[in-house]
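Readers of this paper often ask what the protein records in our data store actually look like. Below, we set out a record of this kind in full and without editing:
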Amino acid sequence: MSKPPVIDVEATLRERISCRVIPPGAKLRELPLTREFGVSRTRIREAFATLEQRGLVERVPHQGVTVVAMTAAELFTIYDVFELLEGLCVRLAVQNADPISWQQLVDLFNEDLEQAIQQGDCDRLFSAIMQYRSQTAEAAKNPTLSAFLDSIYDKTRTIILRTLVLPGRAEQSFREHCAIVAAMRSGDAGLAEDLKRRNMRTARELIVRYKDFVL
């Protein structure tokens, strides 16, 4: 008889929190999770400790573990750093990689994706942006930078998706990413960085306007 697959407790909880399957303010309890994952309470506590280090949960004495709920002020401070790190990431990626390696991203942000966006398919745009981020993070070859960005993505994934459904944002983001990947394909690291930082600023401006919906 084959053994059941080993479940990555931390990764599973991170995914649930970042997608708001487990919403902000929810309590995480050890015993139900030990039963669900078939692991010890020690293993669950270790996962809680890692999630706390990533800023996803907080442990309060005598109250247990709660998923962190971000305030608007906290989100905006994150975006200030997010802009810098995203710009640095794409600059390093372009500097490290052959320009032709970015043709796949150029092909991804194409007329078919634009048409899908016009038909309201924001999930497809979100998937394309996540592919862009995955490829640039890998090419940047900076584990420290990747770790910081991963931590931010955990906290902002749902917010990014909600931002894309705001009036005109999906079309704007598509145009911005077309320009970014074109600069990458041409090997212009400085321009790619500037364009990515501009993309992050326009997203932040919309979040300021629609913070009650986004949060």
In short: The first strand starts at residue 27 and ends at 28. Residues 9-67 form a domain with the Arc Repressor Mutant, subunit A fold (CATH 1.10.10.10). Residues 72-96 form the longest helix (25 residues). The beta strands are 27-28, 57-60, 64-67.
